[in-house]
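MODEL INPUT / OUTPUT PAIR
PAIR INDEX: 1
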Amino acid sequence: MRRRTFLKTTLHAAAAVAATHVAFVQKVRSQTPAGIRLGFDTYSLRAWKWKAIQFIDYAANLKLDSIQLSSLDDFESLDPSYLQKVKDHASAAGIVLEGGIGCICDSTKSWNAKEGTPVAYLLKGIGVAKAVGATSMRCFMGSSADRLGPAPIESHIENTVKALQAVRSRALDAGVKIAVENHSGDMQAGELKALIEEAGKDYTAACLDTGNPMWVAEDPMTTLEVLGPYTVTTHIRDSILFEHPRGAAAQWVALGEGTIDFRRFAARFRELCPNSTMQLENITGRPPRVISYLEPEFWKAFPKANAAGFARFVALAKSGRPLMTTMVVEDEGRQPPEYEAALREQQRVDLERGFAYAKKTLGVGVRWKA
């Protein structure tokens, strides 16, 4: 009798432990992100001249999760009824939309005066983002040209912060995070981090670009380590980086075909910004660009550069080799129709090669696994 009671008690205890374990596992699973969403920035297919609905259909056909509509030109109009149509179409297709505008600093060379003022432009972008159901809106400050202009880069950062702070309440009311990109050599990661913290982390964040660190002599892994905790959206792009007589040279390539260890990058990405989308921004078809860090003139643009960070970049360059595969390379100016057709198709092919690598090698994306 005692033995039977003991066994019964033991079984009940074991069942209780098992139930507790199951409940714990279910709780953990409910709190764990389903996975990093995979998508693309619409600039990747710039030569196709599509609009929002076409981008959504393309993404749905490839079983992607998201799209960054990085320009207001991606919409046929900004009429509320049309924007509602875009929102509904994306919802029906299961595609998460992110918003985007361009330069928001009127003291930089990238500023487009037709936008009126940075504040007006930001408010316009926030309104569009909210209308299509986006919770983030990408924008940028300037480019590498602003690092050697008449005003120091710090003054452009200050002007950008002022514009951002002027729209804080509207961004918070709309539920839209303003994601500032490290764009075209305008800022190193530490500078963008300082900008976000000064503006306010409650409504500003980072759009982490992995191709642009090359122009500021920064290893993209360094960029991730610094900006990862601030990142809500991305421009994921691979690069070939190799030594050059003037320092190093870099060329953008399809994801998985460059010098960056994206397996290691993706693992760290999951740790630092698990709720961010991974938006591929494919920009192939451009020639290598020299980063002339062996010349004194180069350092005039980076008087406060971190030596340890630069050493990491040099090590990455030493590990790389020039591109040895085929690529259609565009020249400046208008191309013959035959070249334009080839460059257009290359954008699609290279982007889809990147999707395949992201899915099969990096395990990124949600819908394709279902």
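PAIR INDEX: 2
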Amino acid sequence: MTGSPYLTDEHEAFRQSVRTFLRKEVTPYAPDWERDGTMPRSAWLAFAAEGLLGLNHPRSVGGAEKDIFHSVVFLEELGRMGFGGVRFAVALHAYMATSYLSTGGSADLRERYLRPAVAGERIAALAITEPQAGSDLSLLAATVRDDGDDLVIDGEKRFIVNGLFADFFVTAIRTGASATGQGDLSLCVVDGDSPGVRVVPNDCVSWRASGMADVTFTGVRVPKANLIGRRNSGFMQIMKNMQLERLAAGITAVGDAAERLEATWRFLREREMFGSTLSAKQAVRHQMADLLTEVTATRQLAYHAAWSYARDPLSINECSMIKLKATELARTVAEHCQRLHGAEGFRAQSPFVRRVQDAQAATVAAGASEVMRDIVARSGFEELR
């Protein structure tokens, strides 16, 4: 028995199968993917063959339709793997971009895009962020004009995960008359090979395997049938799906922090200095105890947030809290563990440097920590107004 109010023996058995898969099929190759700035098609097919790209999607499109805690286990193990680019590429595909199709897409869109995405045959990207707009959706400026049965899209998107190798983009566009605001936003699917789509690598220092790119749409024609849900309903769709994005970011960060702490403790138990191991030094031991307490508490917050999300996809407060707490904690853990490894932690090609950079990037994606604090302050104290 697990002893957890959230996880069953089935979940823990699933954890072991995921961990085995990642150790065999992903971890040995991830350094090469990070170096090359991309994930090969074979990797996506391997994830799909294991059933990991459709845990939360309906069986009607090839998904597993599992409960939320199967996804929690998968995301936590994905975080433990330690390669931010891989974890964010896969999480964005399985829990962010495709979730819009799962919750709001027509039967036709599900067949043409969601089914092959679950099978690992088509890779999804989410094109929302723009040069002047990220967390503030009211400033999104990508526009469309109607031309018969088509929409013609013009606009620029930035920092698009999976952008370099995406087969399609779930794209936020402005479909109303106003130049700003939230009411005129819509979502549609744009094929990556459409004329007028230009993809340029975004040479970020972290998450390199995620294929980060800037994407420009110039006169791109998209059938109106590719709209996801009702026209001008994009803002509410983004709000609903954003909570899953933040939940996923928080859970993977918990896994990342936990694994880094465990690996560092093993190192401290072996590293001898001044007649004893580093783990025997009280100052070091107490520092690790504080971090372990924080990670353990944050994991329980993550599980509670997942439970809340399963009951209400608009659990804004809980999802914002876990995204804030877990990503900030993962950064703190990465920085402490880097220092505890001494000079080795600061070599240019050291995995410790990459882990710190990856953890820093996670505090910005899906809403920066400052935005999360503002959301928590507003929604968390709503009852007291």
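PAIR 2 NOTE: The longest strand covers residues 150-160.
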